[in-house]
Fold this protein.
Amino acid sequence: MRRPRHGGLGLGFWGALLAATFAGAAPSVARGAEPSARELQQIVTPIDPDEVWRGQRGWGLSVFTGAEIQVFGVEVISAVRNFLPGQDVVLVRCSGWKLEETKVIGGMSGSPVYLEDREGQVRLLGALAYGWSFSLEPIAGITPISAMRRDLARPREQPGEGDSTFALPTDRDLDLAPASGPGAAAAADLFPAAGGDPPRPTALTRLATPLMVSGLSARGVEEMARHLRPLGIEPIQSGGVAGGDDEALQRVRLEPGSAIGVKVAGGDVDLVGVGTCTYVGADGVLAFGHPMFGGGEYDIPMTTAYIHVTVGSVQRSFKFGAPIRDVGLIRGDYQSCIAGSLGESAQVMLPVAIRVRNEKTGYEKRYHVEVIKHRALTRMFLAGIISDVVGAAESTFGPTFATRRLAVRMKDGAQHVFTNCYASSSGFDFSTTDPVTAILFNDYTRADIDRVAVSVEIQNTDPTADLWTLAADRSEIEPGDTVTLTATLRPRRGELFAVRVPVQAPAHFAPGPLEIHLVGGAGMAPESPRVRDLPTLLAALKERDAWRANTVIAVLGRARAELEVEGQRIAGLPATMLHGMVSPTDSRGGEAAWSAYHSAPVSIGSYLMRGGGRVVVNLKERRRP
């Protein structure tokens, strides 16, 4: 039976090994002698954790400064069985370079480790990948090359999207409902609590991956770090390589022990995770010895990297580096490794043009970036980048009112434009990017986005207006009648102004008191038919644009019973009939729902209503004709 290959990357691991052996390329190392980095790089013969013993000596390869691969020493402590599901780890004590001082270093993930067996042959054990924070000794955990090889051989299923092991609010379906009741905040926190608290000092955890960030402010880097640290990723404000031999850097190759970069964003803003390459062969590339995001399959540019300096730290030392050039693609992110292939240069990133303008100061800035296409990560990085760019354009940390235009152009030429606004005292509205991720990762059809353009116009004015008075033009109405609310609003340091909001009472409502609440549009969302295909998703996204932060909506406070079947709502059903038609475990797609009627959104200009109000009118019984 033919073994499945990793995305058509070529020969399997054993095929590459046999080819090297028959070609006479497998090197021999004199027994007891310390091999050079070049000699170790040629060794692909694996050694299994069952074959190691306490005190066994070996070597590792990594880059600590510049692009030079250096040899460091290792000594086996023990093999730990089933450390992860179906995966062992080998504990080693490291020595050489400055590891006795720095201990195990963030960015060494993937450093290949080799051991000399009982016959004096040097064999490949795997990738340095785990350690303890605050450790007094340079003790590391090694991921066996056999586990990494198994993941390299996985057949690809859905290239280019990536299914994440953690979820964001827009992971599957766009949530068009309000967060809770009228006036509730509509935007959920951008980043999930993906990994909980930072690892405990007693936990043997994967080494932190330094994420080199250039083009963002210190505030943006720290905000990103706050959410990425639980994932084992440490954003570090960095930059490119300058003042060196550019021609020599362009000749740096990806090989065992060299620094490797994973580029999740590039252009005017670079976000590149730095680690170490473990293996390069005809069947592909292996690195890290642990996952980066744990995101399964996706396509991300893979780069060579330069290490400016290795920084010692009491908690965890780390490498401070920068990407050099793209050399291939990372195709998989698994428990034991990241896996990829050299030479591929297809357009796998999402191009985004960002324009930000501050109307008060005249400041204007344009950015061009590319971000990873991934079901969860696209929103994380795209919104984080835009947030920092918008923050740089604000002239104050005070209240802000902004309008934004989001244009999504498809590869077939179709363009979808979403316009909205937001008002905030704390900066950018993260939901700006929701249409991009909702379209890109919809569950109905493949949506190929060619490029995205985001334009944000900022007004540094206090956008809030207090609800001063609220009155209805009638105290009694009949079912089907329209009552008009008049809201008087008072802006800070501004003149009172009035807004009229008409709302119709449902024809089937029973007589009695009827509460009418006035709420801001930011806390509401339209009742849309169930999204079942891309066209209805696009329509729902555009309809949501009408429910803006600078609108007010009248909401009727009496609930109604309705039945929803196959996306159609049947209203006004008696409770007894509804109970008989739908059970709590009904599998036909029907569900009982209680929802409030509301008016159409009414704009209040460049203001956001603060607070809310309520009036009560009496709903009389309809007169018979």
